[in-house]
Amino acid sequence: MSHKKFTILIIAALLIVVVACFGHATNREVEKLVHQQFNEQQLLRTRQSAAGIESFLDEKIILVEMLAAEVADESPENMTDHFMLLYQKSGGFSSIGFVNSDGVIASGYPIEATAIGLDLHATQRDAPFDRARLSGKTYTTTPMLLVQGVVGSNIGVPVYSDGEFKGVVFATIEISTLSERYLAGVLPEGRGYIYLITKSGRSLYDGAHKEMAGKKYIGYFCGNNSSYADILREQMQGKEGAGYYFDETTGEQRIVSYTTVFWRDYVWSVATSVPVSEAEALIHSVYRKEILLLAIVIAIILAGSGSIILLFSGWNKELEREVKMKTEDLRMSNTELASANTKLRELDRLKSEFISMVSHELKTPLTSIKISMDVVNSLSNSETDARTRDEMLQIINRNIERQKRLVNDLLDISRIETGNLKLHLEPVDLHATIRESAESMKDLADKEGIPIITDLQGESPEISGDHDRLVQVFINLIGNALKFTGSGEIRIQAQMIGGHPEIRVSDTGIGIPAEELDTIFGKFHQVDSGLTREVGGTGLGLAICKGIVEGHGGRIRAESKVGEGSTFVVVLPGGKAQ
Ligand code: ADP
């Protein structure tokens, strides 16, 4: 693994550790906060319950007071319909009735729950009645356990007709109906419940323990020294707050939030009891979300560092590739430079050789001419001297020709190299051109004792070419063949191959080494042999031949076996039989 990748991984790991530590610390905070929030929420719910209870009871009093005003002028019998209407519409009443001014229950609904005909004075249950009669105000009794097993409170409203006391309308409110009407909705779905206790710790209502109605919690529901008893005592003192206790029946920790309920002259305490596990469920749900967030953050970190690593390695690979390519380019250009250098050196060597050769070639004829001239000048008019003069003049002429050839060659190669070789193309009879070339070399060949055999097959093809330049090519090839052939023959063949005229000039001379077969067509190039040195030459002939043939759109090549002879093959384009 590269240094950079390792560093990125370390940074990623550190980031993950930091995020994890941060997550852990946040968890603690969250736990505290959720507990706090939960407790506050519970207390708010409890206050909501207290307000619900107070308004429920107040509403009942108002309803009964309105009923009392409504029935003031009715006969007790007619009152029953009104009682029934309120009983059925409002709910929360266990009975509604009327006590006449004599303290006898005169009417009521439901009939079975009102003990019609009961004389309150006679049964000594007249205290609240008398209080209402005497004070002229609504009264309420302390909640008590009713026959139905529920806790209820009596309300009594004095009734006056034309300022005359007619009796008291009374109603019994079932405090336990609170649960259905007001309290059930206060708690969310779960295992929480609400209970309402008096100052003395008696249960007025318990959403979970109906059997507690009218009973004291301490001693009956819990021991005197339990933490629940402590909570209950706080409630009995009319305080507001929250406390925890362990519920042995369910085996779980519960949180109780409590507050006071004020109704008329009574001070009660309402509480919501919820298992702590509900708060923990909330914390766990927060944890789950947090873990999800943490996982996402870690995934982002990993993905981020992964992408950076990939990016780096991508760059690295690209860089490596580029460096490799550049190195390869450099290596190639080095090789090219080296070979160009070798070529340049070779060219330089050839040039030096050429200069010395050209100087020699130019100087030799000049020297001959000079010597011949001196001889001519010293001659008398005698007959013998006249013969010598003729010989000398022939020598002078040959040397001038030789120099002319050299200068022409130099001009030709320069034209070829600069692309200035002008070809005068015209229909050319190939066989006639070859024959003409052989003819012009006949004298020289005869002198060397080497026959030139022409073997021209089929009808002569007519090609488009520069007659004089083609003659120059063939003469050059025949001339070379004569130069490098001691004995034997020179054969010139011509035939159509694959639609193209092919001319082969073969000799039985010294031959050319295989590795030189291509290079001899380069300018100034001569095979390094004794014979080459002996016969002289400029090394330009074949380069000129190549330039002329290629100028015609043809090709020239050499085939040879050292010691057996050489063949120069010229292939010209097109050509149709005449
Ligand atoms: P040169 O003026 O030296 O003949 P050329 O370009 O005509 O220049 O030939 C180049 C060289 O090719 C010659 O010096 C010789 O070494 C070799 N060469 C050309 N023709 C023949 C041949 N027919 N047989 C053997 N060697 C040849």
Keywords:
578 residues; Beta-Lactamase; Heat Shock Protein 90; 3 domains; five-stranded antiparallel β-sheet; binds adenosine-5'-diphosphate
List cofactors, ions and other ligands.
adenosine-5'-diphosphate
The CATH superfamily label of the largest domain reads PAS domain
Residue-averaged pLDDT: 87
Largest sheet: 6 strands, antiparallel
What assembly state would you assign to the polypeptide chains in this entry?
single chain
Task: Summarize the amount of helix as a percent range.
Answer: 40-55%
Q: What general outline do the C-alpha atoms trace?
A: rod-shaped
Pairing-aware structural class of the strands and helices? alpha+beta
Number of domains: 3
The counted number of beta strands is 19
Distance between the termini: 80 Å
CATH topology of the largest domain: Beta-Lactamase
**Number of distinct helices:** 12
What's a concise summary of this model?
This protein has 578 residues and is α+β, with helices and mostly antiparallel strands.
Report on this structure.
- This protein is an alpha+beta fold and about 575 residues long.
- The chain folds into three domains: about 1-340, 2-Layer Sandwich (Beta-Lactamase); about 350-410; about 425-575, Histidine kinase-like ATPase, C-terminal domain (Heat Shock Protein 90).
- It contains twelve helices and 19 strands.
- Strands 1, 2, 3, 4, 5 and 6 form a six-stranded antiparallel beta sheet that branches.
- Helix 7 (about 385-420) packs across helix 12 (about 540-550) and helix 10 runs antiparallel to helix 12.
- The protein is rod-shaped, with a radius of gyration of 68 Å.
- The mean pLDDT is about 85.
- Bound molecules: adenosine-5'-diphosphate.
- Adenosine-5'-diphosphate binds near residues 520, 537, 540 and 566.
